[in-house]
TrEMBL record:
Residue span, PHB de-polymerase C-terminal domain: 207-408
Gene label: phaZ
Protein name per Swiss-Prot or TrEMBL: Polyhydroxyalkanoate depolymerase
Source species: Paenirhodobacter huangdaonensis
NCBIfam families the UniProt entry points to: PHB_depoly_PhaZ
Length: 424
């Protein structure tokens, strides 16, 4: 009960701040204040609008917002997001482009489960759609999953990836972004041993902590300082009475958001101050840079406690992937079993989440893979976000990955490939 009350207290604080923002906006916007044209009222109204919107976003799942893409035929093609596999803790979704034959390049984007929704990869998806058939792992918010659905830890996560890869077939090209990189590598190794015919064609790992000890960051330092008992006591709570997952043990998204913001507090405080002044001057807009970024950044989801704790314990502290000791249901998953999947690692020179050296460590573990099937890229000056969604991704990394996919593809067959059948 204590955990549930703590969870509900956080939600109460969030809801109160949203209400305060709405109240300030409403009161300061009364026409009567036009008789007393004091800048205080405009500032109060602007503060209210920004505050209300910000705290409301924290419990809203963003929409993908990809309505159409231009085609080579000169027409715009509408995009439909369809669910191919729907499982309790995550779904496999497909961005179906209407009026276009299936593309030869088929890409599975493995989205992070690290506090944000898969829509964090919106711009990544949009940039790949004109040239690829795109599939994404859409993880569900733990607070909305009933306790009756059972646990979900890193072993379950890995087996979900195995199921998704099997479903999509061996001509899929997998791109794992950040947190899922080590588990995607493990899923590929699992298939290499258990079902070689279902292995993906290529695997690209972007900014992931394959070996967290290869280069220290604030994230890895925190993992070393805190014990598992302290971590469980400090951050794990039970979902409150308001949601379907009431009673489930989770690492709350609001707590993760607080951690994200604290890492760059001055930057965020300056951004909100400028936004409030801009709104007070009448220069703000619905889809300006601030709103576009923070509508996504502030939208957070809960992770199951067992997933969060097993990630810290086994990936960061135990280094099970880095030392090739990862197991699923007691059976060791040998990364050296990967012998035919081309693997590419991408790192950002200024990445302060997964520093250079952490991701490229995957290549040393691939003892059974020929050197000709290994590739690596370090993007100078790029931060963590930039290597999968920023200018570095658009200008340099995306073309490299497409070339890598093409270099490892067999000669394209005539005609288009039939899409996978949607699961019932």
């Amino acid at each position: 009960m204590k955990g549930m009350m703590s969870y509900d207290l956080m939600e109460t604080i969030r809801n109160t701040n949203e209400w305060m923002g709405a109240s300030a906006r409403a009161m300061a916007s009364y026409p009567v204040w036009g008789l007393t044209p004091h800048p205080m009222f405009k500032l109060l109204s602007a503060w209210g609008r920004v505050t209300e919107r910000s705290f409301a976003r924290m419990v809203i799942k963003p929409d993908w917002g990809i309505r159409s893409i231009p085609g080579v035929d000169g027409r715009d093609h509408t995009v439909e997001v369809e669910t191919l596999l729907d499982k309790p803790f995550g779904s496999l979704v497909h961005f179906k482009v209407q009026g276009r034959a299936q593309m030869a390049r088929r890409v599975l984007l493995v989205a992070p489960m690290s506090g944000h929704y898969a829509t964090l990869l919106r711009s990544t998806v949009a940039s790949l759609l004109p040239d690829c058939e795109v599939y994404v792992t859409d993880w569900h918010n733990a607070r909305d999953i009933p306790v009756s659905e059972g646990k979900f830890d890193i072993e379950d996560y890995t087996l979900y990836l195995v199921d998704f890869m099997r479903f999509l077939g061996p001509d899929i090209n997998v791109i794992a972004v950040c947190q899922p990189a080590p588990l995607t590598l493990a899923a590929t190794a699992y298939l290499a041993a258990e079902d070689p015919a279902a292995q993906p064609r290529t695997l690209t790992l972007i900014g992931g902590p394959i070996d967290p000890d290869a280069a220290a960051t604030e994230v890895t330092d925190f993992g070393r300082r805190v014990t598992m008992g302290q971590l469980e006591q400090l951050v794990i709570q039970r979902v409150g009475f308001k949601y379907k997952g009431a009673g489930r043990m989770v690492y709350p998204g609001l707590m993760q958001l607080a951690s994200f913001i604290s890492m760059n507090m001055e930057k965020h405080a300056d951004a909100f101050q400028k936004k409030i002044v801009s709104e007070a001057k009448g220069e703000g807009s619905e889809h300006d840079h601030h709103n576009v970024f923070y509508d996504e950044y502030l939208s957070v989801m809960d992770m199951t406690a067992e997933f969060y704790l097993s990630t810290v314990d086994r990936i960061f502290k135990g280094l099970e992937i880095a030392q090739n000791r990862f197991t699923i249901e007691g059976k060791r998953i040998d990364i050296g079993k990967i012998t035919s999947v081309a693997v590419h690692t991408v790192e950002g020179g200024n990445d302060d989440i997964s520093a250079p050296g952490q991701c490229v460590a995957a290549l040393k573990l691939l003892t059974g893979l020929p050197e000709a099937k290994k590739a690596q890229h370090l993007e100078p000056g790029a931060g963590h976000y930039g290597i999968f969604a920023g200018s570095s991704w658009r200008k340099n990394i995306r073309p490299l990955i497409l070339d890598f996919i093409d270099a490892n593809a067999p000669e394209a067959p005539k005609g288009s490939r039939k899409p996978p059948v949607r699961a019932a």
